[in-house]
């Protein structure tokens, strides 16, 4: 950040500059009315204060801070010029009701809390959410900060160039339930496990865009025993065993995973990625933000069996699913070749016709669900009719073929080809 010292401000100056009175009195003869379009909330009653990008470098007068905004609960001082943690800590000491603090994008990388006066360590128990992304904080200083703010439950420390976690961590922070440490440089799952030991009650963890390639399973480990939500998007995970190891996290229900090399090995489509992931993780109820329904799970698990039945080195999950479904007949259409994705025209009772990339390996009921979601229709409120392009062009009496809502029959059974169309017939429209 380049800024002339003369242009930098104190927290107090920026506070009054942004939230000055509705009326400015420059002398007894002149009253300047700023705005009467909407009443401004008095500064001393404000609960949320945003002072991001305000060129703030230090605190200013502490009594002024305490008296000016005594009711504030959420404070954003991100993207300023703070270089000293003591300035920020002393500001928060003035704000007794503060619960959420965002100091992201301040150049605090040359400061270390370990060198500060011990008086700064006096616990401030009101703060529950702490956001310190891109501050350059080292991990030991992060722990010192958690000692100062012992009630923190939600912690964000993304983009801080953290590459490893110290091994001699004897303390635990039991109040922390949500951690986001995306876009750091963590290289091993062993370091990720240390996060689980440090925060034993962790429920949600975002470790996307880190550098670990494997997810290891440690038998009899209690790490992440409460974890329900995990984000590992854009991590260089390159083996399916790592994905299967996630089933050993006993409470894991929601997973976000995209952009990993494992999916690029067979050039899998997004639909196929989802199918093979769902089949491997029996406890997942939400994947990449979308619910995993019982119907989708059964389709995915059956397809998983057929996909691996010819392979020599079958995954562990394969045997589990064989015990559930038995040996299935091989289906010729279960193939992950790109030829099973065709572009069709969706027409009929839609706002306007549109091209749609259709995965022919899915069940017909799955197609109904997909299109229903896009059209915001329940699948029992419409029918689909397949029209072959050649027949439609050459036969004026051709009426197409209704697609039955089958949980077993695949779209391939209708021989859908590139250029064909699918007509939507809504059942909830009044017909005159």
From TrEMBL:
<keyword id="KW-0433">Leucine-rich repeat</keyword>
<protein>
    <recommendedName>
        <fullName>Leucine-rich repeat-containing protein 51</fullName>
    </recommendedName>
</protein>
<dbReference type="Pfam" id="PF13516">
    <property type="entry name" value="LRR_6"/>
</dbReference>
<dbReference type="InterPro" id="IPR032675">
    <property type="entry name" value="LRR_dom_sf"/>
</dbReference>
<keyword id="KW-0963">Cytoplasm</keyword>
<keyword id="KW-0677">Repeat</keyword>
<dbReference type="GO" id="GO:0005737">
    <property type="term" value="C:cytoplasm"/>
</dbReference>
<dbReference type="InterPro" id="IPR001611">
    <property type="entry name" value="Leu-rich_rpt"/>
</dbReference>
